[in-house]
Specification:
heterodimer; A: alpha/beta; Rossmann fold; five-stranded parallel beta sheet; globular; B: Glutathione S-transferase Yfyf (Class Pi), Chain A, domain 2; four-stranded parallel beta sheet; about 10% strand
Chain lengths: ~675, ~300
């Protein structure tokens, strides 16, 4: 026979203001199975909790209903009190008299009647509760960091320095990402490579970090603390152990006209190449699409000259399987190309370039050695126009968001240009100047006031060529709002920052959500900014939204601290509110018929196949099995199951029906 | 191919030569026109700047008449008319309430089954199917293909693919032997309906277009819109007065260029009706040798 205790809370006047709590307690005492029913001013206070604990022992309660506030508020409090009183915490239920009743109704007899109903429902439920026990899952203390840009580097170093193992996967031949391409960084103008390369080297040399470059994530499954990742190591066509990075191979490679991705197609590279001199690892890879041997079957010059015989033309892609406890997605961004802009010539003018290309022109290690030259004829531009918001904040172009970094880097570009070409004229066309950040506004003012860059507030409607000049036609919306035409030698478009082209595919591989712009979605925009809605996967940098270097680094460190927190315990404990598949004795073994409708419906990929076999290994049937580490207890599978063979612990069909019947 | 035909006011008045040339090339292009019976004004710029309902009711009546006549496709050579008819069809398709309202006004059934096509798309399609081997006098000149606004805007109605740098007319001109130039003003505003009220603005806007075309070596400007033609051709004096420059570059309808390439007599194509005479100085050695050859020396003052 059940022995249920009911505890009605006044919540000061929050509940008792409209609900007659004494009446609720009196009526509840008469419910079948209830052996104890009291009301109290603050049930969550120590004396209130003691009421519960004492009653459990004195009345030998088998279940407790606390009629008070929302379970989101105090369920843990009362479950703990029950546990301290010697009752399994999952035999305690809450009836929400505050948010569901007193706060939303006036002081009327019906309000008290509703409160009584809410208690009755919970009494019927708790009679059918079973003791449940927390689920413990072990944690693999290795983190997988996807992406070797500044976000990934920062996250990897922080996790590694906290004493945990890190596996970093980078798809390019070197880590460094976009930051390695930048010339100088706002607002301090320190050299990007100078501050980045020591970090890159640290990654390569850190004893806790395993680095896979020229590699991509092939597959990810498992759950928090227990992921299993498959990494595809693309064939570099060299033996990394033998290669010393001497560079003879790329000096001898005859195919020298391949446009360099690192130099944003403004410079060239060879078919066997390191992306840039400070690359980490500083060992070349063969780009098979451009290698004469792979395309035409002859050449092998690199092989002939390699002093350590490290060239391996027959190397294959390698699949590596690793077990990790957490994943940090730091896969970065791309920028829109100039051919995205019909009004600026669909990319047909070589002297209209993107901001990222300007970075390479301004970089001392770039294709022009830091001299600002026009790509078309190598002349130094006397007049240059910068166009902010190229694509960004333009719903007609499908990019309604602000790319966030362009205001600042455009100011920096204009400043760098003026520092390099003193007599030159620089114009910046802008919509608004968004310079929110430490020393950012001051930096923009310096560009305008000290470096005399002409800021024109207005959009550019068209750019076309006339006698070797680029005519930039726009409007100056200040100063009489007049149309304005500038004859420029070069135009730099601050093109929109967009998600990686395969961001969607990656998100699907990781089973995490992403937004309409294909940026990965954080779990909560304010309070859980680095976690994703799949437990154990974290996000850092511009793959989540456009952001600058300081913000990226901050987010990466935050993600790393979350990973370190996760790795601080050997086991993870979680609530046992998960779905279970019914099991019975032979010959049925389970009501489950193995249709696996639940598998396709589960949003968390928690359904596994379990084979029931005879002792001699003969297969009897295959049934569904729910991975308790992955299940989030949403109940979708329960609702869908055709044979009613799945139940959600703590919310069984029996309990829900009892609640409904009691009304 | 039999196709509905809506001339609108321009093709009976200021741009009769567009009408004449379209009719002249139709047989060779495999086209047969059937005029919409009892057609009315499309409303043009006046209606839609004054009365929202009228702006849809006028074109809707034309479309309803075409429907009644059993037409599947309607050729609307004037770009302004095309824009109004296409916009009406688009809006009535999207908005059921408006469709009901307009049907009540025009007191005719309306289904929206008639496809509205402009001259550029119809001629491109017909040229691909029928022109092969019929070009007897290739139009061997550098031409600036001028699309204007209505063939490329609004983007929902645009029939050209790259709306800021369309290529369709350029490709068609290559078929008839012309050499289209790459220029910057293909879709610039010519001043359009301000031709009468603000000739000064039109002179400035159209002047820029002509200047760039001439500067880049074009020998003719090819258009597909009566309004563009009026502003670039008829307003030439105002353009020259404002810019203090003289421009002899002629402005031809694309149908006239095709007609010339097909070897059709210039008068049949209405070339004599232009304000700016259609002459090509490059052809001079031939033309002076044969003074009887009248085709490209007709001035526009005799009609």
């Amino acid at each position: 026979m059940p022995r249920i205790g009911v505890f009605i809370c006044h919540c000061g006047e929050n509940i008792s203001g409209t609900v007659d709590c004494a009446e609720v307690a009196k009526v509840s005492a008469e419910f079948p199975g209830v052996v104890h029913s009291v009301d109290y001013k603050y049930m969550c206070s120590d004396p209130g909790q003691n009421l519960i604990k004492n009653a459990i022992q004195e009345k030998k309660l088998t279940g407790v209903v606390v009629a008070a506030c929302s379970p989101r508020m105090h369920e843990p409090t009362f479950r703990r009190a029950c546990a301290e009183g010697g009752l399994n915490p999952f035999l305690c239920e809450m009836a929400n008299l505050r948010e569901h009743c007193s706060w939303v109704h006036e002081k009327l007899p019906a309000t008290t009647e509703k409160a009584i109903d809410l208690v009755r429902i919970m009494v019927e439920k708790v009679k059918r509760n079973r003791p449940l026990f927390s689920i413990n899952v072990p944690v693999t203390k290795t983190a997988l960091v996807l992406g070797g840009g500044i976000a990934g580097i920062q996250a990897a170093l922080d996790i590694a320095n906290a004493g945990h193992k890190v596996i970093m996967v980078e798809r390019q031949a070197s880590i460094g990402g976009h930051m390695a391409q930048l010339s100088e960084t706002f607002p301090t103008l320190d050299c990007s490579q100078c501050i980045l390369t020591p970090r890159m080297v640290e990654v390569a040399q850190h004893p806790n970090i395993t680095l896979y470059t020229y590699a991509e994530l092939e597959k990810l499954d498992g759950f928090i603390g227990n992921f299993r990742a498959v990494i595809r190591k693309k064939a570099k066509s060299i033996d990394e152990k033998l290669c010393t990075g001497c560079g003879v191979c790329f000096q001898k490679c005859p195919n020298k006209k391949i446009l360099s991705e690192f130099n944003t197609h403004l410079g060239t590279r060879t078919a066997i190449y390191v992306p840039f001199p400070q690359a980490v690892p500083n060992k070349p890879v063969i780009d098979r699409e451009h290698c004469m041997y792979f395309q035409k079957g002859k050449c092998r010059i690199c092989e002939k000259f390699c002093p350590t015989k490290a060239i391996r033309f027959d190397q294959q892609d390698e699949l590596i399987e690793v077990n990790v406890g957490a994943v940090v997605a730091a896969t970065g961004y791309e920028v829109k190309d100039t051919d995205f802009f019909p009004e600026y010539g669909y990319g047909k003018y070589p002297d209209i370039i993107t901001g990222l290309q300007f970075e390479r022109l301004a970089s001392a290690s770039g294709p022009t050695g830091g001299v600002i030259k026009r790509p078309s004829d190598g002349r130094i531009p006397e007049t240059i126009a910068f166009i902010a918001c190229a694509g960004s904040r333009d719903p007609a172009k499908g990019i309604s968001y602000c790319s966030k970094i362009c205001c600042m880097y455009t100011a920096k570009h204009a400043m760098l240009y003026k520092h390099k070409v003193h007599q030159g004229k620089a114009y910046v066309f802008y919509m608004d100047i968004r310079a929110g950040g430490k020393m950012y506004e001051e930096f923009v003012r310096r560009t305008i006031e000290e470096d005399e860059v002409h800021y024109v507030r207005g959009r550019v409607s068209r750019i076309y060529d006339r006698d070797g000049k680029l005519v930039v036609r726009g409007v100056d919306t200040l100063l009489n709002a007049k149309p304005i035409e500038i004859e420029a030698d070069m135009v730099v478009l601050a093109t929109a920052m967009v998600a990686q082209p395969d961001a969607e595919e990656l998100a699907q591989k990781m089973k995490v959500s992403y937004d309409e712009n294909k940026f990965l979605s954080e779990a909560h925009p304010k309070l859980r900014p680095v976690e994703m809605n799949t437990a154990g996967i974290f996000v850092a940098g511009a793959c989540q939204a456009p952001k600058d270097i300081p913000e990226t680094v901050a987010q990466a460190s935050a993600a790393a601290s979350k990973v370190a927190g996760l790795f601080s315990k050997d086991e993870l404990s979680r609530e046992p509110v998960v779905a279970v598949v019914s099991r019975t004795g032979p010959p049925e073994f389970s009501n489950c018929v193995g249709c696996f409708l639940c598998e396709s419906a589960c949003p968390y990929q928690a359904i596994e196949h379990e084979e029931i076999k005879t002792r001699d290994g003969k297969l009897i049937k295959t049934v569904a099995k729910i991975n308790q580490g992955v299940c989030q207890g949403c109940g979708t599978c329960v609702a869908l199951c055709r044979t009613k063979s799945i139940d959600l612990q703590g919310f069984t069909n029996e309990q829900i029906f009892a609640e409904l019947v009691s009304l | 191919m039999k196709i509905g035909f809506y001339p609108g006011c321009s093709l009976l008045g200021s741009s009769r030569e567009y009408n004449e040339s379209l009719k002249a090339i139709a047989p060779a292009m495999g086209l047969e026109f059937a005029e919409v019976p009892d057609w009315n004004c499309c409303g043009a710029t006046a209606a839609h700047s004054l009365d929202h309902q009228l702006a849809f009711a006028l074109p809707a009546r034309i479309l309803a008449l075409a429907e009644k006549a059993g037409m599947e496709e309607l050729l609307v050579p004037c770009s302004a008319c095309f824009s109004r008819l296409a916009a009406t069809r688009y809006e009535l398709q999207k908005n059921a309430d408006l469709r009901k309202e307009i049907i009540d006004i025009i007191e005719m059934p309306y289904q929206g089954t008639v496809k509205v096509s402009n001259a550029l798309e119809v001629l491109c399609r017909a040229a691909a199917a029928n022109l092969n081997g019929k070009i007897t006098k290739p139009f061997a000149h550098k031409v600036a293909c001028y699309y204007g606004c209505y063939l490329t805007r609004p983007t929902e109605l645009a029939t050209c693919k790259r709306t800021e740098d369309p290529q369709e007319m350029d490709e068609l001109m290559k078929v008839v032997g012309a050499e289209p130039i790459d220029w910057a003003f293909k879709v610039e505003c010519c001043g359009a309906g301000l031709s009468v009220s603000r000739t000064d603005l039109v002179a400035g806007l159209s002047g820029k277009i002509i200047k760039d075309a001439v500067h880049r070596g074009a020998e003719a400007i090819v258009v597909a819109c009566p309004m563009c033609h009026t502003n670039l051709d008829l307003r030439r004096d105002a353009i020259e007065a404002q810019s203090h420059e003289r421009y002899s570059i002629p402005v031809l309808y694309l149908s006239q260029v095709i007609g010339l390439a097909l070897g059709i007599d210039p008068r049949t194509l209405g070339l004599h009706r232009h304000h700016v005479p259609v002459r090509f100085p490059d052809a001079a050695p031939n033309a002076s040798a044969d003074s009887k050859k009248p085709e490209l020396q007709l001035s526009g003052k005799d009609d």
